[in-house]
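Issue 218. Parser rejects a valid record. Input:
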Amino acid sequence: MTTATPRLATVDVPDFGAPGPRSELPDERYAERVEALRARADARGYDRLVVYADREHSANLSFLTGFDPRFEEAMLVLGPDDPPAILVGNECWGTAGAAPLAMERHLFQDFSLPEQPRDRSQPLGDILEGHGIRPNGRVGVIGWKPFRDRSRMEVPSFIVDELRELVGPAGVVENANDLLVDPQDGLRIINDVDQVAIFEHASTRTSTGVRRLLEGLRPGMTEAEAVALLGWDGTPLSCHVMLTAGPRARFGLLSPSDRAIGRGEPFTTAFGIWGALTCRAGWVADDERDLPDGVREYVDKLVAPYFGAVAEWYGALHVGQRGGVLQEIIDRRLGDPFFGIFLNPGHQLHLDEWVSSPVGPGSQTELRSGMVMQVDIIPATGTPWFTTNIEDGIALADREMRASFAAAYPEAWSRIQARRAFMRDQLGIELHEDVLPLSNLAAALPPFLLRPDRVMTLAS
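Output the parser choked on:
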């Protein structure tokens, strides 16, 4: 347990290095994932799986096929041994054909945008029946959100209605999202070395962008000018880019405007691309003298207890740890209603920003090697004290996985080891050897954003 007192200090946050070109998964990895999912479907007793995706919820389909729909929806149909079939609208026909997973394409124009042509595709029922969805069948439906009641679906009703009509009253159509996103062992929860390396690359980029923003932030620039400092290059986003200052900052999730940023205002930003999210929040200030009257004890009242809790949370991470232990740390240290912690303190991260979470009251879910997690512990005070935020990504890797990663990705491994050393020596955060920090901000938390060199630390 961390016992040192958090304090604000001038700390040299190193340049941990920039990543080289992003590595790509081998094409055969997608076929391997499909086979692994088929095995899980067989164990569950499904004879067919249907995987639905739209622009906001494309991670499951992209994970399996390397294809994510743009503008429109798409749907994958998997049987036990026949080729995967993909249903796409007018505009995704070409991109689906270029996917690394070979798929039988079907034009299904009801997935197309409103008023586009709909005269060249078969009825949905005919396509599904042609791929083995028939009376008495057992169909698992994968969208993005599991429910305890498997009869509940979050995909469009016209698809579910068609499936239920085809299998009839003796068949089964049920929610099967847990096959991919169960927080203990979902297929997307446990990542291989190549996927973790891609996520490290992504986190290096988002955290470098947020650091660039913090170092360039100045009163008087507009929110739009500030967000440009992130340097987003068109890589697919895991969530919309967030940046606000002043009165709107308390809402957190909003996009930047053309409003000028003022000294002494609250400020928040979040930058996420596939596999990574980096967030920071604080005040546009050099020190407490820039803050409004009544909140000048910001560091002592909010930031210091928050940083101490997050440091203990970090220190408790290791393969085999139970999610309930992480929850207990935050409940014990930040359980006062003032802090307003109400979401899971930490969750799993993938192509989508929130996959699932093993963290919750009494959770017996064990952290496993290959999990990538977001340090996402957000005080929602709802008061003039505003908030503070230190969101970064980490991976968990046992001895075997660490050795494989170091051998395959030596430059990324060097960055990870430098981050661990910085967190230990400069921030006083001791990490278990299983914990791989992925962020180039490496838990650096500056409460006064005009002084990004002054961060919270437990080191003496």
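Fixed in the parser; the record now loads. The chain has two domains: 7-13+187-457, 47-175.
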